[in-house]
Amino acid sequence: MNHLWKKAGALLLTAGLLTSILAGCGNNNNGSSEASKETESKANSSASTSSGAEAGNENFNETGFPIVNEKVTLSFAYVKSANMRDLNENAMFQKLEETTNVHIDWQYAGDADWPEQKSLLLASGDLPDVFFGSNTLKDMDIMTNLDYFVPLEDYIDKYCTNLQAAYEAEPIMRKMITSPDGHIYTLSRKLPLRPKGCDVPFINQKWLDNLGLEMPTTVDEWYNVLKAFKEQDANGNGDPNDEVPLTGSGMFDWIRYTNAWGITDSLEENLLALDQKTKKPVFIPADERYKECIEFFHKLYSEGIMDQEFFTQDGSMADAKLKNEEVSRVGTGIAWEVKSQTNPHSDEYVVMPPLAGPNGDRYIRGNDATIIYGRNEFTVTTACEYPEVAMRWADAYADDDISVQSYWGPYGEVLDKADDGTITFLDPPEGKNGDVWYWEVTCRDHGPKYISPETEAKIVLPEGSGDGAKLECDEIIKDFVAEPYPLVNYTEEQMDEISKLTVDIYKYVEESWANWIVNGGIENDWDGYIAQLNQMGLERLMEIYQEALDSYNSAS
């Protein structure tokens, strides 16, 4: 087993190589460095190997198993979390090696070590055959080092029947990995049994019952409920001043409340929405509906209904109010899944159906592509001597059964598969917490995955916790889900522009947001605020978002 931090650390022992690394960083892989020359040589080598395989390399089988007659070893770099089991010990991978006859030399780094080790590997050009998992490379890593990565579209079309079927069933999976230059450099995934909605609003049903109140259905009714929570000792402990009707932390927690005003944020681009009618990108803090929402929340803040520490506390402080042992103190909030978020008072809380806003809009943020889908799961480098073998292995990994096990854990250890195909969950070993144990034996953030609807229908999730509990929440809100701005691809130049433009814009937006909710005044300040955003480059930022969306929509 190779540890990447040892491998990368060894690179620094020679002054000559260190000089090469620094030189490579300085010229941004523009082709003039020694690393770029080495990359070009490796690319030519890979092309020769691929051509040889296609011409009838006797060791390589284009279809069926094993993939190769004589065992081939490929090096895979991946990021290993502290509680994740060594992949060499994973029964699923052991079985996959028996089936494919491909041995994987797993090379890992820990979460904390990986950013530095990744920089060293990319700077030096000393690459593994494959970067494995969405937490290894970011979009920018790929787009700024294209010479290091093998275009994969021809391999997909020739060798990858599982991936082809997935892309036909879910076109988004191919669109989200098609770069602006038309090539595919990395593979995608779709996670199984994901909810349609993202975070959900919740409310204390016991408090409603204590005060004889109905579940609110509009923002005006919600205001009246929250005001009653504030004034009428809703938790019934005799202290009318210890209730926090509405809590949360920071702007990117609050932004989800704009749903009722007809705009919904995106996980990847927090202040960006997709207009549900025009299907064009919308910068939320520059939209008139945002202004209306701010005015409403200023009223909540000024009347002491909104948590006065919303702007200064972090998530753990807001959670502490929810998890107060003696008595429930919070009336409403937003969470991924209600039961775990509101423990130890989870019996008091329920999902609050999306509220109708001033224009009758009832939205919930749709599950972003990064929750249901993902990319950068499997990236073949030009160091790989056998890219056709790597891609056939990736296609085998995208099989239904392997995808199920890579997401939840191996059959016979975590899962049981009955003769009729029904898949159920086994109990964790004695003394092991179920949720913690499942994370030990899965590799859900690693590798291309797709599970057909037929197989998904046979998976029986445990009720009341984890994915099962989330899907229970989803039943209440799924009909109100808004389409989020998709996980588009940007060019290197676009990413650089976005990075520069958003620094000042986001800072100005957040400062203005806090000031307006605390002190009011948005109506008088609005025109000057918009003018300042445009001076900071907002119009150009929106052009980039539209260009990227157009490119995404045109991808086949």
Label this structure with key terms.
4-stranded mixed beta sheet, 5-stranded mixed beta sheet, 556 residues, 44% helix, 24 helices, alpha/beta
What is the 3D shape? globular
In total, the number of strands is 15
Number of helices: 24
What are the segments in which pLDDT stays under 50 over at least 5 consecutive residues? 5-55
Q: What does the average pLDDT come to?
A: 88
Strand order within the widest beta sheet? 1-3-2-4-13
Q: Largest sheet, if any? A: 5 strands, mixed
Distance between the termini: 40 Å
- Strand percentage: 5-15%
Radius of gyration: 26 Å
Give the structural class: alpha/beta
What percent of residues adopt helix (DSSP H or I)?
Answer: 40-55%
How would you describe this structure to a colleague?
It is a single chain. With 556 residues, this protein is of the alpha/beta class. 44% of the residues lie in helices and 11% in strands. The protein has helices spanning 4-11, 15-26, 34-54, 91-100, 114-124, 139-143, 153-159, 161-169, 172-175, 205-211, 219-231, 251-254, 288-302, 315-322, 338-342, 369-372, 387-397, 400-408, 434-441, 453-456, 466-477, 492-519, 522-535, 538-554; strands at 2-3, 72-80, 102-110, 130-132, 189-190, 200-204, 244-246, 272-274, 281-283, 330-335, 349-351, 373-374, 378-380, 415-417, 423-425. Helix 1 crosses helix 5 and helix 13 (288-302) packs parallel to helix 22. The two termini are 40 Å apart. Residues 5-55 have low confidence and may be disordered.
